[in-house]
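in:
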């Protein structure tokens, strides 16, 4: 019984250590980018330091603001329908045709 409890305690302590933290993921990404650029020595260290200091929200925000092709098409069709002053069923038919075509 004592061995089982010891094993369970050890396993619960190891699980968080096995999971990558956000900082570890950021470090991996920064190192990969530096190596892809072929940086070495002081240039590598400067790039890595600046990369690690950079805010992680900036790339995520840029990805969120990028529209998919379907969203771009929807935006274009919606703008055309609005500029034509379409409402109700006429708007629905126009949007359907615009999105299909």
């Amino acid at each position: 019984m004592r061995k089982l409890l010891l094993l369970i305690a050890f396993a619960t302590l190891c699980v968080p250590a096995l999971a990558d933290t956000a900082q570890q993921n950021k470090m991996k990404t920064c190192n990969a980018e530096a190596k892809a650029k072929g940086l070495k020595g002081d240039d590598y260290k400067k790039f890595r330091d600046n990369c690690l200091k950079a805010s992680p929200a900036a790339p995520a925000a840029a990805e969120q603001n990028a529209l998919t092709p379907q969203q771009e098409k929807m935006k274009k069709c919606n703008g055309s329908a609005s500029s034509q002053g379409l409402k109700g069923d006429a708007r629905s038919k126009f949007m359907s045709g615009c999105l299909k075509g």
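note: The chain is about 80% helix and 0% strand.
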